[in-house]
Amino acid sequence: MNEFAHGHGMRHCRYRGQPKAHLQHVLTAIAVNIERLSDRSVTEETSSPRPPTAFQTFLDQNEIPRPKSWRTLGS
């Protein structure tokens, strides 16, 4: 957040009006994320999957089907 506010000049908006200011913030956030992704090394990209949470373990132990993640619903 600090990087967004200070490093990219988001303390003051270039445009007047909420829709245009919102668009500027969204596009700047996309640019910040692209910068962060381009700075990652190859070894960071191949990280191991996260361990299951306590709730996921509970569901598995009681043979309760887990709902699909909202991230995988479209695929």
Layout of helices and strands, plus pairs?
Layout: H1 2-7, H2 18-39, H3 42-45, H4 54-61
What is the strand content? under 5%
Uncertain regions: pLDDT < 50 for 5+ in a row? none
Largest sheet: none
Quote the average pLDDT.
77
Rg from alpha-carbon coordinates:
19 Å
Secondary-structure element series: HHHH
Strand-pairing-aware structural class:
mainly alpha
Index terms:
elongated; 75 residues; single chain; mainly alpha; 4 helices
Could you write a compact summary of the structure shown?
The protein has 75 residues and is mostly helical. It is built from four helices and no strands. It has a domain at 2-45.
Structure description:
The chain has 75 residues and is mainly alpha-helical. It has a domain at 2-45. The chain is built from four helices and no strands. It has helices spanning 2-7, 18-39, 42-45, 54-61.
